[in-house]
Hints:
This protein has 10 helices and 17 strands.
Amino acid sequence: MSDTRNVPVLADSVRTTAHGVEILDRRVYPFERRWVHCATMEDVAVAIEQMVTQSSGPLFATTAGMTLAAREARNAAPGDAAGRLRAAGRRLIATRPTNNHIRDAVHAILSATVDGPLAEAPGEELVAAVAKAAAEHDAGYRSGAEALGRYAAELLEDGARVLTHCWGDAYLIGAVRAAEEMGKRLEFVCTETRPYLQGARLTAATLVEMGYRPTVITDGMVPAALADGLADVALVASDRVTMDGHVVNKVGTLAVALAAQAFGVPFYVLSHAPDPLSPGIEDVEIEHRDGDEVLRVLGTRSAAEGARGYYPAFDATPPHLVTRIVTAHGAFEPARVSDHFRSSTDLDNEEQPAR
Length: 355
């Protein structure tokens, strides 16, 4: 049965057209609905770097960027077309190195084309093949988000007050919709999430759009909010989860996890899957952005002239602070998150992680 519910605006914020790619500018949403036109793959890469799109947006921008790269190599000889497509993939991966979804999207498209059956295909043939592989990867991501949303909703009680940090995008939408289908009505507390205020703008706006009235707090209020009983569960997304259960997410997530542990609040993490190429946290590159970004709020300087900024864009939450990691295959204790890759039959034949 098709889903007849309205699609939240941010769930459809990257669109490939005959003339390029249109990306909804999340830096100004919801105050403005401004689309950034990208005529080339390089335009897409710059848009990702400059935070035009965030959360799962860079993944969809990446698949769209690869589609543009194939168009740009349309008239190239077979070997040259393949090389240009691989170079485009390297450029897109470098835009936000911490999030492995970008890397995985590039590798999936290359594996289906120039690193697979179309290694010697002419540029013209690659255009349709790359577009097809991009669409299939996008669809798989959305399907996985719906699946993990159902597993997450199973963990939440009816009436649960859920604390979020940053913007979980398709993950959060999937969890909310699944909870509604189960007859559960949730309440939400959103951290504002400095310095881009994704929680105050993106998460809060989408929840309002879906019929909720979230409470917004500053990042530093999390311990006080939990002490006051404002929320009874924390639910965050992730940019990468290592095979040993470390969670890498928007900076500030570690503080939420520490506060949750201090006040006995479950801390749940949403992730498509742990990253097989990251056995431990030492295998993850933590992106550091220009410190000047923390000296401003939505383009307006908020710090004294002469002050310096420091901006690690992500932090790492160790496994002992995490209650469950929810993937597209189930809800796992951090120490067992690698079970995501085991067959459902194997898991059914032994005791399942508690949910």
